[in-house]
Amino acid sequence: MVKSMTGYGRAEEIFNGCTITVELRSVNNRYLDCNVRIPRLYLFAEDGIKSRVQGVISRGKVDVFVTLDSAGADKVQVSVNRPVADGYYQALKQLSEDYGLSGEISVSLLSRFPEVLLAEKAEEDVEQMARDICSVLDRALADFDQMRTREGERLKEDILSRVATIEEKVALVEQRSPQTVAEYRAKLEARMNEVLSNTQLDPARILTEAAIFADKVAVDEETVRLRSHLSQLREMLAGPGAVRATLKKYLPVPAFTRQDQRWVYHGDTLPQRAGEGVVRRVLAYNCQLMCMENTFETGAVGALHSHPHTQITYVVSGRFSFTIDGETHQVGPGDTLLKTDGVEHGCTCLEAGVLLDIFNPMREDFLPG
Fold first, then answer.
1. For 164-185, what is each residue's pLDDT tens digit?
2. Which CATH architecture has domain 7-72+125-156?
3. For the whole model, what pTM was predicted?
């Protein structure tokens, strides 16, 4: 089935007075890169969200936005702050006695003083809230998948229309091919008659030349191969599973501007925003290796992620807190880190600095356009 790489989905639902809204959007990316934006109070649900997304989406840069409006769901517990209330009561009585003041000390009077009454929000059931968020996420994912399917069908129709056009042109080429040889033979004979004038032409020689030309311009093998490829393309588009993985072996390797470039000057590289407070520069690379510079501002975060590449990171400057496969250490200038493919890792910049990353194979998803 053909599905578009880009998509958008949204769902909203109310649980116990709390309105939960989940939005997803994705753009093309070679691997799955899922970023979850959720209020800090509900970060406990992030792992469950990523797991749900990975179960539905295999690749693409996916942003998940979760908002919660609990204005109608706040269960507030009000209690009396007895030490404070007693203090105010005793102070008011002392004022009355010392200055001969009259009047009753009423509840309404005491309750007006600060911190006499305490209003506290009831604790939430964390597990139930996570289930509620994932329930809304499932609906948003279904909406997201429907949009990708609709766009995929339109892409499929466009591709098939182009396939039909190619097949029409192939039929014209096949029809015209025998005429080309006949026309060449007639032109050859006329030219030789003109050059040799009264000299008798050797019919065998003309047939030999025509045969050589026919062999050179024969397109039978190419048209048969092309029709076979078009037939396979139709089957791929009609079959189940991801189409790109099957088509990849037929696609040409993209020729990027700086691939295999021997000399790469820093001033010629393009800075790319890689996140809040992070600037990335792709340096020298080929299909096996890529060198990349990441400049971090203090406090900038490289979110936990994984990828099918081996990565070596060299700390050029600054200080960082790195987490690799659940283990966290602080590193500084001169330190080196190894992250094998598939291992989850991330970092927080403690002091502004620069990281130099080496990837094997190269990160095609980091290349511009």
1. 999 999 888 888 877 776 777 6
2. 2-Layer Sandwich (3.30)
3. 0.47
